[in-house]
């Protein structure tokens, strides 16, 4: 695994707000943030004044990079939006150096989020577009098909919680905008995240989380 960030060439695909990529840049990584949305890159640019990130407008299935370019490629909340994951993962493999790491975050199958999502999709009220979900096993098997070797599994509860997200998105429809992260539940939030950290090393934890992830090496 990559044990230090300084000097590593890192690509985030589908960067969104760019929060994690910007942090890696501040820690010394050579960071590229790629998104097909001009609006996303505009938002990143407004937050990137103290960093040296490279912003790339492109489709993650057709990246403007040579083979074997990056030490790390990662995407979060992206793979699940593709009816076929092949184009994205094939491109991830191509642009990674041999021995480089791919980090993939996706929604967990066994979660109340998945039930609520499908109910809202049926009702025509889902805000996230088309979306699938994975188990740790199905995600790992998919990466193996593309020549990756899974070396680490992880998961995370929703931050903020799924119910807060649903309320926030619902209120947007009546032009009431809540912050991305709640600011007035400090003690409850601290305890919630503390519990998560205590449970993180237990195998059962991966079946309680909203998002699951695999870190895999290109072999």
What does this structure look like?
By secondary structure, the protein is of the alpha/beta class. It contains 7 helices and 7 strands. The protein has one domain (59-218): Vaccinia Virus protein VP39 (Rossmann fold), CATH 3.40.50.150. The protein has a 7-stranded mixed beta sheet, sandwiched between helices. The longest helix is centred in the C-terminal third of the chain and has 14 residues, at 186-199. Helix content is 34%, strand content 23%.
Write the layout of secondary structure elements.
Elements: E1 9-13, H1 19-26, E2 30-35, H2 38-47, E3 54-57, E4 70-76, H3 86-95, E5 96-107, H4 112-122, H5 136-145, E6 148-156, H6 162-172, H7 186-199, E7 211-218
Parallel strand pairs: 1-2, 1-4, 2-3, 4-5
Antiparallel strand pairs: 5-7, 6-7
Mean pLDDT: 85
Q: Give Rg in angstroms.
A: 18 Å
Placed side by side, the strands forming the largest sheet appear as 3-2-1-4-5-7-6
The number of E-state strands comes to 7
The dominant shape is: globular
Q: Which secondary-structure class do the elements indicate?
A: alpha/beta
The CATH homologous superfamily is named Vaccinia Virus protein VP39
Query: What is the fold named in CATH at topology level?
Result: Rossmann fold
How many helix segments?
7
Following the backbone from N to C, one meets helices and strands in this order, namely EHEHEEHEHHEHHE
Largest sheet: 7 strands, mixed
| β-sheet strand percentage | 15-25%
CATH architecture: 3-Layer(aba) Sandwich
Helix percentage range: 25-40%
Whole-number tally of structural domains: 1
Kindly provide the name of the CATH class.
Alpha Beta
| Spans of at least 5 consecutive residues with low confidence | none
Terminal Cα span: 13 Å
């Amino acid at each position: 695994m990559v044990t230090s960030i300084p000097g590593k060439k890192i690509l985030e695909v589908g960067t969104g707000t760019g929060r994690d990529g910007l942090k890696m840049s501040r820690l010394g990584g050579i960071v590229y943030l790629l998104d097909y949305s001009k609006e996303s890159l505009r938002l990143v640019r407004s937050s990137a004044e103290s960093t040296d990130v490279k912003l790339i407008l492109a489709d993650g299935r057709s990246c403007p990079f040579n083979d074997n370019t990056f030490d790390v490629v990662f995407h979060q909340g992206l793979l699940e939006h593709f009816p076929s994951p092949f184009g994205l993962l094939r491109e991830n493999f191509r642009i990674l150096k041999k021995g480089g790491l791919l980090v993939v975050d996706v929604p967990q199958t066994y979660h109340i989020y998945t039930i609520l999502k499908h109910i809202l999709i049926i009702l025509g009220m889902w805000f996230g577009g088309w979306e699938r979900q994975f188990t740790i096993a199905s995600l790992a098997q998919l990466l193996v098909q593309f020549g990756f070797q899974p070396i680490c599994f992880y998961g995370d509860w929703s931050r903020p919680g799924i119910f807060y997200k649903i309320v926030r998105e619902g209120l947007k429809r009546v032009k009431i905008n809540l912050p991305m992260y709640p600011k007035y539940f400090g003690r409850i939030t601290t305890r919630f995240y503390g519990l998560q950290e205590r449970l993180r090393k237990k195998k059962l934890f991966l079946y309680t989380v909203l998002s699951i992830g695999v870190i895999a090496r290109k072999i």
